[in-house]
Amino acid sequence: MAKLGVNIDHVATIRQARKTDEPDPVWSAVEAELGGADGITFHLREDRRHINDRDAELLKRTVATKLNMEMSIDPGIVRIALKLKPDQCTLVPEKREELTTEGGLDVHKLRRRITPVVKKMKSAGIVTSAFIEPDSKQLSAAIECGFDAVELWTAGYSDAGTPRTREAALDMLGCAVEFGHERGLIVHGGHGLTYRNIGPVAAIAGFSEFNIGHSIVSRAVLVGMREAVREMKRLIEGAGHHHVALIEAEDLLPLEE
Fold first, then answer.
1. Which SS3 state, helix, strand or coil, does residue 149 take?
2. pLDDT at 248
3. Distance CA 83, CA 59 (A)
4. Is 34 helix (H, G, I), strand (E, B) or coil?
5. Domain count for the chain
6. CATH number, domain at 56?
């Protein structure tokens, strides 16, 4: 059964909208764990637009489950990660002007720069993961660089405009999961996943974990973080019990209010 990692970045985004001290992303991580989260994910960006150094340090001290730090390969951020030593570091692309991470990291193109970073992380006892698109070239490059895991970019599915493109994206994800497993990679998934589209992806056998942020934080505004996490966990677990290749998002039951 796939686990759920909750990304708490956008709790910090709300805080930074007023540049105050609430809501506290560290406290939201506690609430997420109490709701059943299997891990907490945060992205320490170079521009510190949401999560800051204080948050990262306190998350390391307080998170009782798996702590996953998303990060660029910027030398300054790498130094912080090596000092912080989260359970896992996920290397992601990063652009100053983007609203959220757009596309996967081009591990194939950047493998000469990435490989030394991966070696440093693994020497420090940190599990390393690459956020990549579900492409065999990127998967092979991730293996070459020495990554323990990959997180497959699922926005090709979540952003699909037609049933045909959605089905093609799901097929691509399924093939990438199989390709990764055959070569010894742990396979995670994330980006653009919501309560209304998680079912078909969660029904693909082989995903170890899904990292979901914006949708859960949005739901938490209405029902609280604990309940928002419980609802997402139920959907993932329910999909995992059914060996179904495709489930139309429209067929999902509406959320209980």
1. strand
2. 39
3. 14
4. helix
5. 1
6. 3.20.20.70
